[in-house]
Amino acid sequence: MSNLNTKLTNKSYQRLAGKVAIVTGASSGIGRTTAKLFAQHGAKVVVAARREAELATLVSEIVADGGEAIAFAGDVQSEEFAKSLVALTVKSFGRLDIAFNNAGTLGEIGPTADVSAKGWNDTLAINLTSAFLGAKYQIPEMVKQGGGSIIFTSTFVGYSAAFPEFAAYAASKSGLIGLTQALAVEYGAKGVRVNAVLPGAVDTDMYREKNNTAESQAFLTGMHALKRVGKPEEIANSVLYLASDDSSFVSGTASLVDGGLSINRT
Question: What is the pLDDT of residue 209?
Answer without folding.
Answer: 76
